[in-house]
Amino acid sequence: MEAALMLVSLGLDPFAERVYRLLLTKTGLDVVLVAQELAVTEQQVQEALEHLTELGLLLPSWESPGGYRPVSPQVGLLKLLQHRQAEVQQRQKQIADAETAIAALISEYSELHPVAQHPRAQSVLGMDAIHRQIERLGMNAVYEVASMVPGGAQEPSLIEAAKIVDRQVRDRGVAIRTLILDSIRNDPPTLAYAEWLVDIGAEVRTAPTLPIRMLVYDRKIAFLPLDSSNTQAGAVQVSDNGTITAVLALFDRIWDAAIPIRTPLPKDESGLLPQERQLLKLLAQGMTDEAAGHHLGLSQRTVRRMMAGIMERLGARSRFEAGLRVAEMGWL
What we know:
Arc Repressor Mutant, subunit A, 3 domains, 13 helices, 55% helix, disordered N terminus
């Protein structure tokens, strides 16, 4: 099962894998014979062959003009894995760039604090008022609601309240794109909520860290916390073009680098999950276990368990020794 999931993460769907395995074990098969062997249509086989060719797992046959020969797994699958690893590194760089961008955005917002008088900004104080405004904006959305939700596992009561709005939004044909932390994959209630969102037609992706909570409606209105470290302090609703452009650029950059909720998280060339690599970076910056866990949506206990696993892989007896080995191996 795990091997099948890994091949899917490399871009090889289950049916194409069946065709590839068959061609590896039997020679001299053409489209007709493959279709007969697998009890499928010739069109399905042709599409799978084209897909395998695009992935570099099939090459034109020297012996049978118009036919194919399979590339050995040692060559073809390793090349796909290396390509996937390069994509992971690029995603991690994009997320790091996004964090830098949001820091600048938050700095700009600190100057807007008395926002109530701003013609294109409206402050909303009090949790009840915030939730009423979120419901109102959701009901008025025409084509898209995009959200970024840091903080890890969600309270069951908040999930049930969110479901009501989400269902009403989707029933009107409005698209939903949601970014949440990788850590929710290990929290059954929040993961079930994310799966439910996908089932009703929403798109959900995860990232190791998310810099700020935000909601963006129809790419025209953004709903942001007044204080990113205390979302209960209040929120600001903004619609000026400059701010919306910056917020959308940040959201889209992280979205492009994030992993769909139903896709297994890929490991990089060092065997690290994105969340593990981000943990090492945060601790290397001097953060405590508690602070790093807050950024990743993890408890201190989980952070310590993750570090224990990394240390075991490194053969390190202390965090100091682990830090030295991480530096030696170029993991950061």
